[in-house]
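To whoever is covering the structure queue this week,

Two jobs came back overnight. Logging them here so there's a record in the thread.

Job A:
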Amino acid sequence: MKNRREFLKIAGGATFLSIIGSGMAQAAQVKNVGVNLYSLREPMGLDPIGTLTQLAKIGYKVIESAPSAKGNYYGLTPKEIKQVMNDLGLILSSGHAIINANWQKSIDEAAEIGQEFLMAPMLPSKGQTVDNYKKVAETFNKMGEACKMSGVTFGFHNGVTEFEKENGQVLYDVLLDNTDAELVKMELDLGWAIVAGANPEHYFEKYAGRFPLWHIKDIKKDKNESIEFGKGKIDFVSLLKQQKKSNMKYMFVEQEHLTQPALATMRDNFNYLAKLKY
């Protein structure tokens, strides 16, 4: 998880949910599946265009980038990656970027691409205290305002530690309570939230409208590591039924821990979701 923390506008407004079936019996099926590129960090580092081409062939429609040693877009310029996405019929709707001295550059690049969301994958300062989370909230509000001025929506992607408590207060709640709901959105990593003992439905109800993005992953039954979908303990059906309540816009497959080549893993995960009905 430490490595992860360091390192979809769907055309026409299409939703992530497709209702199928007939008569009294109806089932929902996942459509327009997205993927976070941290799951493919090695192949993206070696051959970003080739890897994106393979993801498109698998059936992924929406992409979320992640930081790399070559920058936010794996050595490609905003113009170049935008063209690649257009050529492949993909949408780069979101991206993660490390909060540092180059943060304004990350905003400018996202705006140039037409990227809808820019996510911080870690806190800008350390300290598992209420005071630090209030300080972070102030920083996030400023970042949210800067992103808004460029036509980008700012947000934060959680791990496990944000759900720790100090003096009975859940630190993630402190962050939500002290950030502007219009300027700071949340990308809820469902897997790590559940590992931390949090109930996603509780957050969707208490903080309505704050969670337009999801990360979806499976977690091993005997260890807090991600695994191929369907092999772990996550109840995907129950989670997917909460899309409307969350007002979720884009959902991204993510798997940090790999047991086989990344593209094979992402193919297995895509096929699992494509067959899932709820």
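Job B:
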Amino acid sequence: MTRTLIITNDFPPRPGGIQAFVHALARHRPPGSVVVYCSTPARSDRGTWRDPEAFDIAQPFPVIRERTSVLLPGPAVRARARRIARLEECDSVLFGSAVPLGAMAAGLRRDGVRRIVALTHGHEAGWASLPGARGLLRSVGANTDTVTYLGDYTRARLARVLDPAAARRMRRLAPGVDTERFRPGAGGAELRERLDLGERPVVACVSRLVPRKGQDTLIRAWPRVRADIPDAVLLLVGGGPYRSRLEALARERGVADSVRFTGSVAWDDLPAHYDAADVFAMPCRSRNGGLDVEGLGIVFLEAAAAGLPVVAGASGGAPDAVRDGDTGHVVDPLLPGPTARRLIALLGDPAAAAAMGGRGRERVAREWTWAGAAQRLDAILG
């Protein structure tokens, strides 16, 4: 049986989509086949998750943490990774992100690791346009057996950087969704009661509050939405450094009374926050000349699994998660008008919105399962 060492900076209890992706891949490996070597989340990351020690003990595999918030491929980390691989008899390595940790691939290969795979996400696709990062990505591609990609957008960006042989070895590996957790009836009614939402129409956005995610576009669109749907509520789920600016924008636009900020939400409570909504919207956008893009957006898939129609911004690979016009809509994220029009149409026709959400859930159950992702990883690891 292949025994895999996962080396990653992106792992719970630090929250985030990549963290959830890597963790789920680890949990879906055969028993006894995984060891995780990762960083330790800073204390500021621990608010809505268990402490690392309690989290690690609960996992069905060993978790070895370096006492640093970021693993970098320096001499000490390289030496420890090679030592863990030897002591744990790991014959394969999976890097949670290709850059920068994939720079350790050549040394691990010399120590006898048979198979090396590097995951990529949105940030690698952005970095592919930077000269220094391009060289590192090309080196990672040359020294690993497979570089994975999320969808057509990320593959196209990365394939231009890798040498032709590495580009031919690329394989798609995208996250799945647990449709038993994210589903209609997952506690939304109780949450609505707790938040005193009653039967009001709700648009939810689940994400960190940062400029790229587009919560400001939602707030700019909200006066037009309220003009047509006066009792609508915008539920912004998540914490982040942009919150004070978003709160100020809501006051400036005169909609503060209908915009609710939940702050950070525990992982176990996320399904209820989707289930409390009628529509999901995150008009994410690309920033910094394309360096900061949405790789895929697992929140769009979680929302679809919850039976919600989705409004997504046209950033990076986000359109891969939405079948435009069928399971949701893809909008220009820089303009509030397109977002407002789509939200008004969906909130104004609940039957059509529910049908669109139902098609989204069917698609996720068919195409975006963790069982499918686990099978693809099995094949990639050989």
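Note for Job B: The chain has a mean pLDDT of 94.

Please reply-all if you pick these up so we don't duplicate work.
Q.
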